[in-house]
Structure formats: structure tokens, C-alpha cells
Design brief:
Layout (H helix, E strand, L loop, with lengths): L3 E7 L8 E4 L13 E6 L2 E11 L13 E2 L8 H13 L4 H9 L7 E7 L9 H12 L6 H8 L5 H10 L2 E7 L20 H11 L3
Antiparallel strand pairs: 1-2, 1-4, 3-4, 3-5, 6-7
Helix pairs in contact: 1-2, 3-4
């Protein structure tokens, strides 16, 4: 049970091909090479693929912990991972690029920032703050800081938003988007005993209805 894992962010992030994170105690023994995990990367949370493990952190480095585990078994077998790493080396490309091509964006996720109204009374009488409160009150879906700035008629409102957040008027949250890939199912039939001719015909007719 490794205490640390090496991961590659997905989709590829320039110059960040191998990062080390701590494995929380409840996830030890579950996180292995080839599974996807959600990790903090700067202010965001992103998908990453585990490409190795270690009993110790790199010298002089304090590793941030993994946030969550996305798979209960590897989606990239070790032999395929070795092939993708060889391809990256052969073509002088970042390994994150070959991993991203193999996995695809539909199986990845990342966080995005939204603004939520908490207490309109905590906003000041400033005209911009009142427009922000009005936009949040009338919105039918969560607004990003950029969308809120557009609604307020400004290019950027980051300083105002942080001031409002400190007073408790709003909250600025990071939320994870669901991967675009959906689970697909197929129907399978298992023959329990050899059918007679009449049953065989009924089975064929039934299967042909699908």
C-alpha cells in the first residue's frame, strides 16, 4: 500500500507530466497504476492518471493529498501504459499528450468556479454590488465570475467578488463537472439448456425483435 503516487494530469498540462501526491489513509490499497484520480492543481481540481507509486515523497517536497478515486480498476493496463510512455519518448512528446489521446477528453473532468448568493443584505449599496446581487437573484443556473462580469457590464469584477465573499454576501465555490462519457449497456442471452426445434424458432424470433 503506497503512501504516495505519481500522476499525469489529463488532458495534458504543459511541463506538468509527472506530479507526486499523497494517498489518504482510506484510499491506500485502492489507488493503483492505471486508475483515474481527482487531484488539486493550483486553484483547480483536475483528472489525473496514476502512472507510478512510491513509499516516500520527493526530498524536500510536501505533497498535497488526492481528493478522490474515479475508478475501482485500472482503465489503462500497465502494458498499454508502458507503450504510451515509449511512444512519448520515441516521438519526443510529453507523456501527457499520448495518455490524453488514449483516454480521450470524455473520460476526464475538471473544476470550474461559480458564484453563489448567500446573504443579499450583506452587500453594500454600491451600484456594482447591487447589480451583482440582482444578476445572481434572477439567474436560472449558477454563474461563473466571467458570466457575472458580463451580466454586470464589466470586463472583470474579481476584486469586488472577493470583497463581497469576505462579508458573506456571496460564496465562490469550485464544482466538478461530470465526465461526458456515459455508461453503455448491452443485452446478453445465455442458453441454459439445448432447445428443441419449436423453442429454437421462438428464441430466434424473439432475438430478431431487438
Amino acid at each position: 500500500m503506497s503512501a504516495f503516487v505519481h500522476v499525469t494530469p489529463l488532458p495534458a498540462v504543459s511541463a506538468l507530466t509527472r506530479l507526486t501526491y499523497a494517498v489518504p489513509e482510506p484510499l491506500r490499497g485502492l489507488v493503483g497504476v492505471g486508475v483515474r484520480v481527482v487531484v488539486p492543481l493550483g486553484p483547480r481540481r483536475v483528472t489525473a492518471l496514476v502512472v507510478g507509486s512510491s513509499a516516500e515523497a520527493p526530498e524536500g517536497v510536501t505533497c498535497r493529498p488526492i481528493i478522490s478515486l474515479m475508478d475501482d480498476c485500472p482503465i489503462v493496463p500497465e502494458k498499454l501504459l508502458a507503450l504510451l510512455e515509449w511512444m512519448a519518448e520515441y516521438y519526443l512528446a510529453p507523456v501527457g499528450e499520448t495518455l490524453s489521446l488514449a483516454i480521450g477528453r470524455a473520460l476526464t473532468t475538471s473544476s470550474h468556479r461559480i458564484v453563489v448568493l448567500r446573504d443579499a443584505a450583506a452587500a453594500s449599496e454600491d451600484a456594482l454590488e447591487r447589480r451583482i446581487v440582482e444578476a445572481l437573484s434572477s439567474a436560472t443556473k449558477p454563474l461563473t465570475p466571467a458570466g457575472l462580469a458580463q451580466a454586470a457590464g464589466r470586463r472583470t469584477i474579481d476584486r469586488v467578488l472577493h470583497a463581497m465573499a469576505r462579508r458573506g454576501a456571496i460564496a465562490i465555490d469550485d464544482v466538478m463537472a461530470a465526465p461526458r462519457a456515459k455508461t453503455q449497456y448491452e443485452t446478453a442471452f445465455v442458453v441454459q439448456r439445448m432447445p428443441d426445434e419449436a423453442m429454437r424458432r421462438r428464441m430466434i424470433a424473439y432475438v430478431q425483435t431487438f
